[in-house]
Amino acid sequence: MTTAILETPNPTKPAKQKVVLCEGNEAAALGVALARPDMVAVYPITPQSSLVEHVAKLIADGRMDADIVDAEGEHSVLSVLQGGALAGARTYTATCGPGLAFMFEPYFRTSGMRLPIVMSIVTRDGITPQSVWGGHQDAMTVREVGWVQVYCETVQEVLDTTIMAFKIAEHHDVMLPVNVCLDGNYLSYGTSRVELPDQAEVDAFMGVKDVNWHVALDPLRPMAVDPLTGGSGGKGPSTFVRYRKGQCRGMQNSLRVIEEIHEEWAQRFGRRFAPLVEEYRLDGADYAIMTLGSMTGAAKDAVDEARDAGKKVGLIKIKTFSPFPVEALLKSLDKVQALGVVDRSVGFRWNCGPMYQETMGVLYRLGRHIPSMSFIGGLAGADITVGHFHRVIDATEGLLTNPAPIEPVWLNEKD
Amino acid sequence: MYEVRFHGRGGQGAVTAAAMLASALLEEGKYAVSIPSFGFERRGAPVVSFLRCSDREIRQLTNIYTPDCLICVDPTLAKTVDIFGGLKPGGTLVQATHKPLAEVALADTVGRVGLCDAIGIALEVFKRPITNTLMLGAFARTTGIVSLEALKRSLEESDFRDAGLKQNLIALERGYHETTVHTIERRVAA
Hints:
The complex is a heterodimer.
Chain A: E1 3-7, E2 17-23, H1 24-34, E3 39-42, H2 49-60, E4 67-70, H3 74-86, E5 91-95, H4 97-102, H5 104-112, E6 118-123, H6 137-141, E7 148-151, H7 155-170, E8 178-183, E9 191-197, H8 199-206, H9 236-269, E10 277-280, E11 287-292, H10 296-308, E12 313-318, E13 320-322, H11 326-333, E14 338-343, H12 354-366, E15 372-376, H13 386-398, E16 409-410
Parallel strand pairs in A: 3-4, 3-5, 5-6, 6-8, 7-8, 11-12, 11-14, 14-15, 15-16
Antiparallel strand pairs in A: 1-2, 2-9, 7-13, 10-12
Helix pairs in contact in A: 1-2, 1-7, 3-5, 7-9, 10-13, 11-12
Chain B: E1 2-9, H1 14-27, E2 31-36, E3 46-54, E4 69-72, E5 91-96, E6 110-116, H2 118-125, H3 132-143, H4 148-156, H5 162-177, E7 179-183
Parallel strand pairs in B: 1-4, 4-5, 5-6
Antiparallel strand pairs in B: 1-3, 2-3, 6-7
Helix pairs in contact in B: 1-3, 1-4, 2-5, 3-5, 4-5
């Protein structure tokens, strides 16, 4: 339920904003509506369902002027949006878990065709064993497919980031699809106070719509898209490399663009989110814990309590996971002597969390050895509480004096 | 930080009640976050939901394990579910029941009890045993954490259709006024 409560009382806020109470899925839908997409295609799946139901209701109520396609499955959802994006439409969808898996073929194609589609992943753990609850396994599984992926911490950040995602995706130096990841359950259904930006202010922020300037389905200017290329002869190899290098360049450019757009958002709306990497109480810290997504709130509370108890711990949160923010993270890692990384998914190949695995690559670039360890928690809807984070903090502190364990710590193993 | 755990059965509106309470607390200028527990909810199956409120921003998005208050919107639930697990010593129970205090099973941690014959009132108001708004009134009366006026405004601004709104406002009022509040005196341990 949305309840409009009151006008923001603080007159120094740079923009008019209404305060509402809503869950993360509704916040995403409200963000989508404010970004004014032309076309939305949907297929419901737990825990994303209420998000697309809210989008459908906004359209049905006339609060959102977009065509909605109720497709027969996720493969069609994304395929339909590709046509829309090629015709110059601003496009949106949301999915998770098995829906994302069913979408995989057009999902790969979207980044290759440089289509700036925005898709929320209401993250859900992988099956099997059967589970319908939250976890990052779905988004992590597709982290190597050329989509920009950002993770939100709060309901407010879901709303704001969903709007920013369109501007990031459509930026001429990026032109890549963007996943806004919000944790299934705790964030998708967590209900809290959010400030709802004014539509005119969002319109000014978004600027003139210019979605698909590089290739467009235009009857007066017919052209082939997605040509057969590659192989070992003729222009195939060089054409293919040009595509891939272009995607990699777009990914790297997105790091700068994400920072610029977050800064512009802060200027206009007064809410500042760390665009790539957030440092929390890292100054004066001997060691740090690293987090991703909605677990971060409890982690910050644990860090505050540990600091009060005299422990020199700080926190590093990743917002932008793809592309991995190597340079920004290097600066943060350079401030500490030991690191504990908490993942909400499993890296099967390395027997550790995926974010830990990525971070080990960054640690190599640091040029000095930092002992580190991997924690895996919050799988399939399990909770990661302040108490769990105290265990993470204590174990990470132990790395200053004891050898680092090779095995990951499974935080909910004995819950 | 004040933490509330709602107990109910699927279909009784425990999750909606947590969201309505969050809305009323917001109205009073407080921060509030509600989180439903999740599963394959079926009508009649035990469900819980959680609510935190504070004067400061709430960062934890987690379940609640040591609540200050329990709101149990179903009179028979305590027979099958340990609703008292983790309740802070001296904590509050707001219970839907037609029984007198002497016949209500309480854990040693309970220090304050609000009792409301929510099913009986709901059958009069809605012709159905929907107890959630009633029990919000009972919560306001028992704890004073939220005002009846804020709960009313929260209802008025929610999605209820006119008839539903009128009935729910009556339910809220009756829940507030027809709740008996008891303080449990504990003997000091020897």
